[in-house]
Amino acid sequence: MSESVAVIGAGLVGCLTAIALAKRDYDVTLFEYRPDPRLSTTEDRNLRSINLAISARGITSLEFIDKQISERVLRDIIPMHGRMIHDRDGNQEAQDYGLFGECINSIDRGLLNNNLLDEVDKLTNVKTEFLHKLSQIKFAAAGTGKQVCVFATNLTTKNYEFDFVVGCDGAYSTTRSQIQHNTRMDYSQEYVDCCYIELYIPPAAETNREFNGPFAISPNHLHIWPRHNFMLIALANRDGSFTSTFFGPWALLESLDSRAKIEEFLRHNFSDALKLIGTEQALNAFESNPRGALMCVECKPYHLNRGQAIIIGDAAHSMVPFYGQGMNCGFEDVKVLMQLLDKHQGDRSAAFGEYSEKRHTDLVSIIELAKNNYKEMSHSVTSKLYLMRKKLDTLLGRLLKDNWIPLYTMVSFKAEIPYHKAILKEQRQKKILVYLQAVILAFTSVGAFGIYKALRRTLKNYK
Amino acid sequence: MSESVAVIGAGLVGCLTAIALAKRDYDVTLFEYRPDPRLSTTEDRNLRSINLAISARGITSLEFIDKQISERVLRDIIPMHGRMIHDRDGNQEAQDYGLFGECINSIDRGLLNNNLLDEVDKLTNVKTEFLHKLSQIKFAAAGTGKQVCVFATNLTTKNYEFDFVVGCDGAYSTTRSQIQHNTRMDYSQEYVDCCYIELYIPPAAETNREFNGPFAISPNHLHIWPRHNFMLIALANRDGSFTSTFFGPWALLESLDSRAKIEEFLRHNFSDALKLIGTEQALNAFESNPRGALMCVECKPYHLNRGQAIIIGDAAHSMVPFYGQGMNCGFEDVKVLMQLLDKHQGDRSAAFGEYSEKRHTDLVSIIELAKNNYKEMSHSVTSKLYLMRKKLDTLLGRLLKDNWIPLYTMVSFKAEIPYHKAILKEQRQKKILVYLQAVILAFTSVGAFGIYKALRRTLKNYK
After folding, report:
1. Are residues B354 and B443 in the same domain?
2. Does A44 score more than 60 pLDDT?
């Protein structure tokens, strides 16, 4: 008889985990505390869902689990080749992401989730239970019996028994806290001083279409209105609309305590975006939409001994959204975990142990990178020195191929480079880059020959 | 009418808080989930209570709250002038703590707690409720109403309403987690790889008394058996017994998986202590006594806005016991909080806000110091270089008075120096000390005159 597993949380990572485990012949039950999102008839958009960008790690992980499923669930993605920077006067300037035209891809979180749930439904060995909120896990004391999961449902509580539990229940994970009661888990949560508010840019009117579809601005860029310590971003949806998000310090939001102040603030900083969103709508959103907090979570280990439980995705490593890696990293978790289960031929104790040991460095690396990228997105992208260094970085990347890979490329387009190795390589490259930049700035007066000599000398030393 | 406050936890910090608030005319209810410890008739010693050392910060804080109460609750302390280092052959060597005979003081945690509870009982505006386990706090949404505390009692739950709540409920604080649900609290918990087991050294037989009382070893020292990555310590109790604690890495404990292995381990490392404890008793303790984990907790902020709740003591900053500052720091929390309430004339919102802002640096400082002191206690105290530096440190402290104060003196005997300032001063002193030591070692061959010149030059530069 096959072993039974509870997957807690039917979000993106939970759905993919259920699919991956079902394909490995486990007897899977997928629990979700919300109702089935596919049944919601009204237009109740979740107003706290930052739009998603799926890139190489997410896609290769989906493909590793199932190539056909990957193709089906990703049919609606919109490629984004780079950033589009909007200045205060409404001027736009594109900055490519890749060296050779690589792109990341915008996708609506709700849509992707529904697609994944449809795939889950096709599998005979996955049961899905909505409106089941996990309240407790009673782990078998000796480590040999079943784990009893207690769920709060509509009016009562229900108990279910499983051989093991996989927690994909997000930043405020109950699975995690239940594991914490049974093992010495290091844990930290840190709020960054950044609040977010979701806004909505509707599809363009018929008369105003310069893009391939009803888009008011380029659908193939991630739009950024960088204003130093705050910013606005926008990602395209298939229907021509854009999901836009404002990020800024809490104190700033609290200082905008009247409709007049909000309007002045928006007009001064985001005049072109205000026209796209609609003044009335933008003011309403700033006044009434929920204000999200951004929290980083790190912990270790991720599992209980004896293969009783493990957490992956946001439950194990919640990060800020500024590198677009949260979901990608979560999907990669599923891939890594499955590879280890395959390697250890289903010996969960060994697989979970190795997962905690080996995955940790990569997870803390991407959490750190994501935190640091806020400054890059909201501020550096407008700095001349930054842009010069970025051009140099791109140039070296194109010339030296695999011997020089810009950090963004490693993180977003090179799934085969683990996060922590990307950071190590970047540290080496950055030293050279800063030096090179200084040399170039110094030799500018000496003219092209000086630059050429300096470049040649440095490149010769670098292998 | 006076404002009502729930103090959660009737441990050391909770009792002192109840007393301090009652003296400020608040209407106090003190809740404790355990039964009244004074009613326990059997000899059910708590086997996980590291003995306590109270020093200047603890004593001055008690005195700040109430000088008479301080005298009464501390009547049973035993002064400890220094460490007594035991080597493998049973040789003992004393190392003074202070420069001028200052001492820290051993006290039984249970005894001190009972004394404080007796003082609580004398106050008319404190009610005490035992066997009340906090399960939830419903904070008034608008911040203006009462906070509803839900307690699980014997068979049912009970609700109580208060103007505000002070959480003194220890490292696994429920008050803290309830505050976390209502504010963006940074939080981290980290386990150190150290397990502890409590042991018991009985009073000496009548025929074997070289000390003033039935003590088998000096009552006026903190005994340490330092063995590099593990150690044993012992603190005297009034009745002639010692509370002894073993500290060591978890893997070491797990490797001692038979009675024979434990016995060999103890005989090899702690032969003299084994005679004091009794071989049979020591083996039983290693096999059956609970094994404690050591966890560091840091968080910020400590309060909810609008003066609804605050956490102090271990609930806010759990630290490892190696600097003997856990309780001292907790008592100081009470003092600092009361000073701020006095300063802001009962405006809790202002007082709590300032507490979170100002107290944090000191709390993370002492958490860090305590963590680092494990190495000093278990290892450095046997190093010749360490001892030389310590002698030099003491010498400079005696010569330069307030211009040079060894770190241990600042932390344990100078309550007027905040923890974080002690660290800053120590960093400055340590640089000089390391330099001086190098100079002395280098000049040893040149003879006394070289040392004298080097010393004079350095001291002249230092003010």
Report:
1. no
2. no
